[in-house]
Amino acid sequence: MTTGARTAKGEATRARIVEATADRILAAGLGGTSLDDVRADTATSKSQLFHYFPGGKAELVRAVVDLQGRRVLDAQRPALDALDDWPSWEDWRSRLLAHYDAQHGWGCPIGSLATEAAATDPVLAGELTAYLRDWAALLAAGVGRLRAAGHLRAEADPERLGVAVLAAVEGGLLLTRTEQGLWPLEAALDGALAHLRSWAPAER
Length: 204
Prior knowledge:
CATH topology: Tetracycline Repressor, domain 2
Strand order of the largest sheet: 1-2
Helix content: over 70%
Shape: elongated
Number of helices: 9
CATH superfamily: Tetracycline Repressor, domain 2
Number of domains: 1
């Protein structure tokens, strides 16, 4: 079975290269990751590496962004697409914590890349910004459903609250990386959900 002109074995090799590069960038940063590092990590030759990524490091990094973006969003599903009551938000929180707990304190791959790319690669920075906006939009849609179901007051602003939740996630992940523990993300998520609940209608 092939994908385009690439064999299944070729697809597996390409995926292995992307995954190894993703791990190295998380550990060493974008600037601390060279194609020679990737070749050593994956036991591939220079010609083999450029066969799969003729655009060199820039093309490889974009493949990493695509991989990490899918990993992060997929880890939150199906809860992320069904945020419409408080239990669904708690389920989303649990899924996000489980995903990042498995990352061994490396923090957010997208946020880390965005910070580094902003000063060196405007095109990549734009792609990362678009990804974060998409994530914020998914959270805002969940806030909107929460409001439509009557769990939030009518004046609650889904866009602002969605961004606030994502900001809490990214801030918690930054501290999770520096502290090498999951508790800052747990605290940030608890604070974000408490803020969200503060918009609930007053009980009568």
